[in-house]
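Its record is quoted verbatim for completeness.
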Amino acid sequence: MPAIVIKSINGVQPAAQPLRKGGYGIITSDLLSSGSGRSAETGRAIRYLTRANTYKLQLKFKGETSDIARVYKQIKAFTLVVEFYDSGADVNDPTYSNGYVTRSFYSGDPSFVPDGETAELSVNLIEI
């Protein structure tokens, strides 16, 4: 994994990177329509795909309070355009460039904990 996993948020490189160990996780999931479920007769899954491979980034930062506070301010925007590293990204994706892809996200319930000189920030970024 490269040293810089979050290349930019809304065009600006963040003041800090997620922790190297346990601070950066990628989840991709399929969004299914409300008509999806299980058949009452057979019990088989019925899936009506709305969108495949939707990203969720699980991020945890720790560092100097001033740096982490700047990242916290960045992720509070209503919409976040994030360029991030994904080793499993599709090279045919039009936003793909040297292992990085770009997607639009919103932040889900960030937790910012300042502790004097240092601070921690945990947040999930969920693809719009």
Residues 65-75 form the longest helix (11 residues).
